[in-house]
């Protein structure tokens, strides 16, 4: 197990894990429950002007505070029957690879899928309810909050339907997704759940993502996602953004209209005013990207790369007031939103990136199932997204792709 998979998890990571792949992981030591990172919130202001004998101004140091970054743990279980394990081991290393590769690749894809969603929308929600049909046991997600990549393959996942403030679980307990109608943006639910109390504006979260009776965000079991960082106006990483302009994000309403290149530029202007003079990545939904791909503004930067600046490209690059702007499609971004941020500033901080090793017992990768004839294997991660410059991020809202 260690020889085959121990140090090769990078090779198994799926292409949809855009942020997990491109944002580096950094192991950090905890101070209590948190990782502590120093952040600069103001400039130095102890300047003295004039020549000759001029009285020096008082020292006005920059405000530096400790951002407290809390890693969140995520554990995934799978199992092998004794007979399956015996056959794999008896056939040697090649048989072991053949018998386990699909299972472990699926585990890594599943872990990256959940981590990627958290990095975008952690401590928020997966979508907003447009309507619920108690007779058909279905809920329909509103167009602006639908993200196809969040729901693709989500059958059998446990979710909770909560009030918009996250305080009340409408169905009283978690429910299971039985079917997904991507065309109509509808989830079918199993077990005859009581949807009579579900109303438009309620939100959907994964079961276990929040404690049973949380205050909004405070009792989330997920990391803080990019959407929260880009729109921050209050406390983030235990630093109060209401006191410091450099700790506030930028929200750019599009006005229930299509996202255009000009609107992308316009939204970035406030971030430039706060010091954004570096490359940014703009994450958009597939529906939004198709519209942008047809926008023939004259600032497109053509590139010899087959993946950029060609028809059908995965990304398009332009130059704006900040520098390079790379627009990338992300299937997990909601259709009514887009997010711009300096990718090189972001980090994934924590005790452990995705691993099959049991924390504290690195040699133990299979466990005996206590009440079944088989072995259990677990994938584990303890990390969070850290972006020390909310002022250089932009959340675009009110996008209509009609």
Describe what you observe in this structure.
With 402 residues, this protein is α+β, with helices and mostly antiparallel strands. It has helices at residues 2-5, 9-12, 18-22, 82-90, 92-121, 148-151, 226-230, 261-273, 286-293, and strands at 25-27, 35-40, 64-69, 72-81, 127-133, 138-141, 158-162, 175-181, 186-190, 203-206, 235-236, 239-240, 250-257, 280-284, 315-319, 324-329, 338-341, 347-355, 367-368, 374-386, 394-399. It has a six-stranded antiparallel β-barrel. A six-stranded mixed beta sheet has the order 13-21-17-14-16-15. Strands 1, 4, 18, 19 and 20 form a five-stranded mixed beta sheet that branches. Strand 19 and strand 20 form a beta hairpin. Helix 4 crosses helix 5 (92-121). The radius of gyration is 24 Å and the shape is globular. Mean pLDDT is 86; it is low at 296-300.
Short description:
This protein has helices at residues 2-5, 9-12, 18-22, 82-90, 92-121, 148-151, 226-230, 261-273, 286-293; strands spanning 25-27, 35-40, 64-69, 72-81, 127-133, 138-141, 158-162, 175-181, 186-190, 203-206, 235-236, 239-240, 250-257, 280-284, 315-319, 324-329, 338-341, 347-355, 367-368, 374-386, 394-399. By secondary structure, the chain is of the alpha+beta class. The longest helix is centred in the first third of the chain and has 30 residues, at 92-121.
């Amino acid at each position: 197990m260690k020889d085959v998979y121990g140090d090769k998890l990078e090779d198994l990571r799926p292409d949809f894990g855009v942020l997990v792949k491109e944002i580096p992981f950094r192991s950090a030591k905890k101070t209590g429950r948190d990782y502590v990172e120093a952040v600069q919130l103001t400039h130095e202001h102890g300047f003295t002007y004039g020549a000759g004998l001029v009285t020096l101004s008082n020292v006005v140091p920059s405000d530096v505070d400790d951002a407290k970054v809390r890693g969140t743990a995520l554990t995934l279980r799978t199992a092998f029957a004794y007979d399956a394990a015996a056959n794999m081991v008896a056939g040697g290393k090649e048989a072991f690879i053949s018998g386990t590769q699909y299972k472990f690749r699926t585990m890594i894809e599943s872990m990256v899928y959940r981590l990627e969603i958290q990095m975008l929308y952690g401590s928020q929600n997966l979508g907003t309810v447009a309507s619920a049909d108690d007779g058909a046991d279905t809920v329909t997600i509103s167009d602006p909050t639908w993200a196809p990549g969040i729901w693709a393959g989500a059958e059998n996942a446990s979710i909770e339907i909560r009030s918009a403030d996250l305080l009340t679980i409408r169905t009283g307990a978690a429910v299971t997704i039985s079917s997904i109608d991507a065309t109509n943006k509808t989830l079918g639910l199993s077990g005859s759940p009581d949807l009579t109390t579900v109303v438009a504006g309620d939100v959907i979260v994964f079961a276990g993502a929040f404690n049973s009776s949380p205050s909004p965000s405070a009792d989330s079991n997920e990391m803080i996602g990019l959407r929260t960082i880009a729109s921050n106006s209050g406390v983030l990483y235990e630093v109060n953004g209401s006191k410091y302009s450099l700790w506030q994000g930028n929200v750019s309403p599009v006005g229930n209209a299509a996202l255009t290149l000009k609107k992308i530029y316009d939204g970035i202007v406030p971030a430039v005013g706060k010091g954004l003079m570096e490359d940014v990545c703009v994450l958009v939904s597939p529906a939004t990207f198709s519209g942008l791909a047809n926008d023939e503004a004259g600032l497109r930067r053509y590139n010899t790369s087959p993946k950029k600046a060609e028809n059908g490209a995965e990304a398009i690059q332009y130059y704006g007031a900040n520098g390079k702007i790379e627009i990338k499609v992300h299937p997990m971004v909601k259709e009514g939103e887009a997010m711009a941020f300096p990718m090189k500033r972001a980090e994934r901080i924590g005790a452990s990136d995705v691993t099959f090793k049991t924390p504290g017992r690195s040699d133990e990768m299979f466990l005996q199932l206590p009440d079944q004839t088989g072995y259990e294997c677990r994938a584990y991660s303890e990390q969070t997204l850290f972006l020390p410059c909310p002022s250089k991020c932009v959340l675009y809202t009110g996008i209509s792709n009609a």
